[in-house]
Amino acid sequence: MGSYARFTGTLRILEVGDVFGGGVLSQDGSYFMQAKGKHTGGGGSPDPAICLYLALPIYGIGVNGNEQVSFDIYREQIVNREGQREYTYLTNIAKNVPTNVELKVGFRADPNNPSRKIHYADAVIGGQVFNWNIPEPERGIQSGIRYGAYRVKGGRAQIRWANTTYEMEEVEAEPIETEGPDLTVGIYSLENVATGKYLTDAGVEATPVTMSDSDETQNTHWTFVNSGIFFNIDSETLGILRAPGSGGPGGPYVVLSTARPSPESTSDKLWIIHYNKLDNTFRFESGSGRFLYHDTNGNVTHTLASETDNRSKWKANLKNESLTISNQKNNLLL
Q1: Average pLDDT of the residues of the chain
Q2: What architecture is domain 176-330?
Q3: Could you give the residue numbers annotated as active site?
């Protein structure tokens, strides 16, 4: 957390596109900058515009009735990572008046829970601050900025930029050290604390994993493989686990079997291991900040769950050799 992209510039708007006289947000006006950002879990565009800053024309009165004299500024923002959008009015700026603009898009720690992240797009337009937290921050993996003049569905647009600057900062989060069993040594079955059932590989690519009553068969056996500072959870019979998003092929956040070998660095196949020494259990956090979970409907998902929710807690039962104790370093995705 702490990575960001930042853009500054001086904006002058002379005219913007117009189809229906400035009254239809989805058609009228022109964009002058946008926040970009990729996410995990599928759904929506592979390179989506998280929010776009739209200038909508305001016309004069009387003899100036056909002239654009100022511009209402809206933020066209996503409601979810699948791309549904809404509009928020921000401010009005006068025609051909230099206006200082800043946009910063990035990740910061949630002040209410430092282990969580906030994905933000904070703008300053003419000295007014318009901060916005992007939905589903746990799925965000990348930030960027685009600026210029685009979307002209009618008429023409003249948007001038001067004194532009752009900077990008990549910040590595400090590792979190926890003392616990080193799961990279040995083969394990994973028993859910709430249900007593065992995580079971589907045996087929892109198919939801299941749960079994016993851990005798090989498809209930798993290894943990380092992938950088994270881990892959690797089946002894097929491949590593994948944690899709709300548009996953097995249903929202349903965990899938894959045929992919470890190690694999794709974010939806990375996990953080959390160990609770008080009850000798584990929680497995996906790259989107959710936890491996045996749902009441029988599905295995990755879900936002408290550390006291036993459906998100697992016993790692050794199937072949003794555990060793080490300092296990975990980290959080930017």
Answers
A1: 87
A2: Trefoil (2.80)
A3: 36, 150
